[in-house]
Design brief:
mainly alpha, 3-stranded antiparallel sheet, 13 helices, 3 strands, about 70% helix, globular
């Protein structure tokens, strides 16, 4: 497939995910919306507004000259760091975490913006330092310091899942940039040791690990959410109970329209529906990485790899958590789950993939006689 055909296929996949997500959000949130606001459409209307805002932001990104986008990486990272610091003073605390700025009925989550900024910055930095990436001081240390600083600011909110996603995407880009494998192995080992200490140092994280190992040990406490997710998936069977027929959405499954929406899809659409979702994300990854392989410049290649990896990693973590393959961690399913900042940034990520592919395709076109 040509880059243009890949972009067209990717656009169809994104539209399909958005359409499925809108239906799933309405089904999963209607009862909660009625109970909280006296109307069944409150959450899905907010979801639609987020999609419109994301599409608008994506169009703006497509209109920004590609060279200027590349140059903006360091400023975007600086802005992200400032927002991540300011949230400690002006952010809203929810459930013991301070991750959001609240503006009336809408909220802004700086960590979502920080992830995109980090990908743009690392893509530019690694492209500029391609010849010296394996030199510790000049090549490898700068991206590690910036990633560590931003992930650390996200971690103290606390938001371990997003911090892990940022670190994993950075590792992906370093591997694509051909960093020597001993360095990568050392970084993975260091990250694993750090993760163990982060989990062991907090009681609620230890409870999540215990619930992951044996959720039946505390079915009304730490194991409650994952057990309800199991019940939801099991109830769906092969073809599901039908759209709007979920029982778990009736206040049994917490975060049904956000962190566990895949379970509601499994209950209502069954194995057929969940397999279709997995297939769409697999096609998204395939098209995205093929676009990266076709890119003619390193910045475009790294940018597409980072963006595709970020979406794919979030989707994998979400589905792994819902199916009990990973400990419970709140990450929305990209382009499907309810969420303002995450939806906007996911659509911006898609726009960056399109822009990088388009810019790379234009750059590699041969000059015609008229263009000489």
């Amino acid at each position: 497939m040509t880059p243009r055909q890949l972009r067209q296929t990717l656009l169809i996949i994104i539209c399909a995910l958005l359409g499925i997500g809108a239906v799933a959000v309405y089904s999963a949130s209607s009862m909660a919306s009625q109970a909280m606001y006296g109307m069944t459409l409150r959450f899905v209307v907010n979801h639609a507004i987020a999609i419109v805002c994301g599409l608008t932001a994506g169009l703006v990104c497509l209109m920004v000259p590609f060279d200027r986008l590349r140059q903006s990486g360091r400023w975007l990272v600086l802005m992200s760091i400032v927002l991540l610091v300011l949230i400690w003073f002006f952010g809203q605390e929810v459930g013991g975490a301070r991750r959001w700025f609240r503006f009336g009925r809408f909220s802004l989550q700086p960590s979502e913006f920080a992830q995109v900024s980090l990908v743009i910055y690392l893509a530019d930095l690694l492209a500029r330092k391609a010849g010296q990436i394996n030199a510790l001081g000049k090549g490898l240390l700068p991206p590690l310091l910036v990633t560590g600083l931003m992930a650390g600011l996200v971690l103290i909110q606390p938001d371990l899942g997003t911090a892990i996603a940022m670190g994993a995407v950075a590792m992906l880009l370093l591997s694509v940039a051909k960093v020597r494998w001993p360095y990568l192995v050392g970084l993975v080992a260091l990250a694993a040791v750090t993760l163990v200490f982060l989990i062991a140092g907090h009681e609620y994280r230890r409870r999540r690990i215990l619930a992951f190992v044996n959720p039946w040990q505390d079915p009304q406490g730490s194991g409650y959410q994952i057990l309800q997710s199991y019940f939801s998936l099991a109830s769906g069977g092969l073809t599901g109970v039908g759209a709007g027929g979920s029982l778990q959405r009736l206040f049994y499954l917490p975060s049904a329209h956000t962190d566990f929406i895949f379970a509601i899809i499994g209950e209502e659409l069954g194995l057929v529906g969940t397999t279709a979702i997995i297939g769409l994300f697999a096609l998204f990854l395939t098209c995205g990485f093929r676009i990266a392989l076709a890119a003619q410049d390193l910045f475009s290649k790294y940018l597409v790899c980072g963006c595709v990896g970020l979406v794919g990693l979030k989707a994998i973590i979400h589905m792994a958590v819902v199916t009990g393959l990973m400990p419970t961690k709140g990450l929305p399913l990209p382009m499907i789950s309810y969420g303002g900042s995450s939806m906007v940034m996911n659509l911006v990520i898609c726009a960056l993939i399109f822009q990088a592919s388009r810019a790379s395709s234009v750059a590699r076109q041969p000059l015609t006689l008229e263009g000489r």
